[in-house]
Design goal:
This protein is α/β, with parallel strands linked by helices and 629 residues long. It has 3 domains: 346 residues, ABC transporter type 1, transmembrane domain (ABC transporter transmembrane region fold, Up-down Bundle), CATH 1.20.1560; 136 residues, Rossmann fold (3-Layer(aba) Sandwich), CATH 3.40.50; 72 residues, Rossmann fold (3-Layer(aba) Sandwich). The chain contains 21 helices and 10 strands. Helix 4 runs antiparallel to helix 6 and helix 16 crosses helix 18. It is elongated, with a radius of gyration of 37 Å. Magnesium ion binds next to helix 13. Belongs to the ABC transporter superfamily. ABCB family. Multidrug resistance exporter (TC 3.A.1.201) subfamily. One of its GO terms (molecular function) is ATP binding. Pfam families: ABC_membrane, ABC_tran. It is found in: Membrane.
Length: 629
Amino acid sequence: MTANREQLSKAQRAELKRLATPERPYVTVNPIKLFYTLVRMNDPEWRLTIAALIGSFLVGCNFPAMSVLLGILIDVLFLPVGTLEEQRHLRHEADFYALWFFVMSLVILVAQFGKYYAFGLAGERLTHRLRDQVFRATMRQNIGWFDEDAHSSGVLVSNLSNDPQSVQTLSGTLLGSIIEFTVNIVAGIAIAIGFNWRLGLITSALLPLQLYANKKRTDILMKGNQATKAYYESSAQVACEAVSAMRTVAVLTRERDVCEKYHHDLEVPLRIGTRSAVTGSIIYALTQGVNFWQNAIIFRVGGAWLYPRADGSTLGGLTLRTFFICLMSSTFAAMACGRVFSLLPDVSKALESAHDILAILRRRPKIDNYSEEGSTLDPQVVKGHIRFEDIQFRYPTRPDVKVLKGINLEVKPGQFIALVGSSGCGKSTSIQLCERFYDPSGGRVTLDGVDIREFNLRSYRSVLGLVSQEPNLYEMTIRENIALGYPIDAPPTEEQIVQAAKDANIHDFVASLPQGYDTMLANRGSGLSGGQKQRIAIARALIRQPRVLLLDEATSALSSEDEVKISKVLEQAAKGRTTISIAHRLSSIQHADRIYLFMNGRIKEQGTHSELIALGGEYYNMALQQSLA
Ligand SMILES: Nc1ncnc2c1ncn2[C@@H]1O[C@H](COP(=O)(O)OP(=O)(O)O)[C@@H](O)[C@H]1O
Ligand SMILES: [Mg+2]
């Protein structure tokens, strides 16, 4: 048992080490880079940003100015008050400096207001602009990019709402606070040294230690948080799996094991958390102590220097006033040293967001639907001659699996071909290559003899129509759903919409609805039957008058009654255009000009239905199973 525990903790230690030095550690703050990035992102709001920065600077001057005023006031309070004249003088002096405090209060009022107003406004505009740009950039990315886990819809949606927000915090309140504290520190030191360089140097001597200790503490806490977060996520995963598969856990009587595993997963973060809490606390206590050491030194050294020498002068001409100014300004500076690093975690998180935003804004995918390059196609001239020439393909996210291993096929203009084969053999992949969702790893797809990579992507896709198994309608009116298919930016005419609906055999149904084409599809069409939804999707594909029609199991999800009806609609729609159809049920593709039987990424058999039946191979077996032979 002990040995086991020892072994486990060794493995954990290795894991800990890996987590402590993750692939992407939190972004360390390079002040120049940070400033440059922020200025660039805030470019359109530069006037507001400058106003806000000036406001922050003035707010930062508050404490240093106060330390000077307080020092002077101490002097005033020690003025003699023996005679009436002297009392009046004291009163006058006190009033005068009270007025200064009042002036300062006005400056602070204006500066704080200006700072928050300008940062607030600039920040709102910045978030709005960034969200807009990030979403636009997201829409530009290729399908392979969306296959990656890091770009799953959940992650993208959360990034879209969080990243611009955290950059806004960075360029707003955070930047303001950084400037404020920096002015506190620099002006504090400058004032102390300016009033009495000897005492100033001594009082400032401990500030670097203060800064270093605060930075160290923040680093430790941040690393600890990062490491424990990973463990908590993994333990949450254990809990989630167990609860969601509770029946299996119960059947296998594994409740105790699951608890044991959960308990074990919680122990590691506890240990990391304890360790970073202990180290962090020690350093925190140290930084708090440093403040008082500083005061002790000032009183010990400065007190001795205040004592008049034989000739009545003090060392370096130190007076009570300068003594207090040094004391106050260095105390304020020390406080700012502590506070400036408390911003570090937020800054680091925001920098990470800024980094992610810049990364997506700059990314130009190879398959770029915003690209203006490539030759444009004239839909009137396109013949629709598709060829696959020795196509090899691996999905970018699964480079070790070769999905297509040399596919050669040809669809002459106006022909109807069918792809059949068991699931997972690469049929849908072939259709996706036709749509240029991906580029093949080897070989080429051609349209009318030209490699499809040479066409402008938008122009190329606009001559294709795709109907897949799931209709994927949107929460809009029926009219808008059909119009989505129209390839030109201008909206289609009423006649075009009605014609498409008639071609999809849905017009009569839509016309019978109380609101006709203006019927809203609540919940993406949950009120409609599968066949009705699919017909709207077909109308959406047909309104673009595609030269090439791609059907990926368009009837598989339907009831057998709907299947027959929709197969007829599609048969009609395929007339006069090149069609590639994937079908589960062979009955719908018997009449195809050519049938390709896929097996394991290769074409195993090809020919017409009767040729393949005569061959007596795989296709014949499939047909037998479906009682078609
Ligand atoms: N986006 C993807 N990323 C990685 N692998 C995929 C992806 N889509 C499909 N595959 C894999 O490619 C192979 C072929 O899939 P597909 O073309 O969809 O087969 P089907 O013939 O059933 O339509 C399968 O092994 C499948 O797991
Ligand atoms: Mg498929």
